[in-house]
Amino acid sequence: MKKVRLGILGMGNMGSGHLENILNDRCPEVEITAVCDLNPARLEFALGRLAEHRKAKPDNVYADIATFESGDEMFASGLIDAVIIAIPHYGHPDYAIKAMKRGVHVFSECTAGATMKECVELCECVEETGCKYM
């Protein structure tokens, strides 16, 4: 079975938790191929965790993780099939729509939007692109 290539947008507390779960094989159908954060220190943290993971489990060779400071760049990279959006809630609808318009499926940690207008736009984008949204 082909693994889903996953990107994580936001490497704060929640994004870091998702990184740990996937690196520790709690989601065997998924592999992280990219992470994104505005803070370069959080990107270094993610790469450091990958290095620690490789040292602890040398038989479980994990692919390199690309780092991005822009969600738009990560979505356009062709390196991910899906993204977990783990940023403050007000940015979720905009990034979800941008991802789906690039053909990237979305796992959002928050509600679809803070307003009915955002929710409607998101639902329309799901219909228009055929991407999965959760």
- Report the portion of residues in β strands: 15-25%
Which range best describes the helical content: under 10%, 10-25%, 25-40%, 40-55%, 55-70% or over 70%? 40-55%
Tell me the radius of gyration. Answer: 15 Å
Mean pLDDT: 91
Low-confidence stretches are: none
**C-alpha termini separation:** 22 Å
The class by helix and strand makeup works out as alpha/beta
Q: Numbering strands along the chain, what is their spatial order in the largest sheet?
A: 3-2-1-4-5
Order of helices and strands: EHEHEHEHEH
* Total strand segments: 5
Q: Let me know the largest β-sheet.
A: 5 strands, parallel
Shape, per Cα inertia axes: globular
Give me the number of helical elements: 5
Give structural notes.
The protein has 134 residues and is α/β, with parallel strands linked by helices. The chain contains five helices and five strands; from the N terminus they run βαβαβαβαβα. A five-stranded parallel beta sheet has the order 3-2-1-4-5, with helices on both faces. The longest helix is centred in the middle third of the chain and has 17 residues, at 40-56. The chain is globular and about 50 Å long. 31% of the residues are buried. The model has no long low-confidence stretch (mean pLDDT 91).
Features:
134 residues; alpha/beta; five-stranded parallel β-sheet; 5 helices; 5 strands; globular
Please outline the helices and strands.
Blueprint: E1 4-9, H1 13-23, E2 30-36, H2 40-56, E3 66-68, H3 71-76, E4 82-85, H4 92-101, E5 105-108, H5 116-129
Parallel strand pairs: 1-2, 1-4, 2-3, 4-5
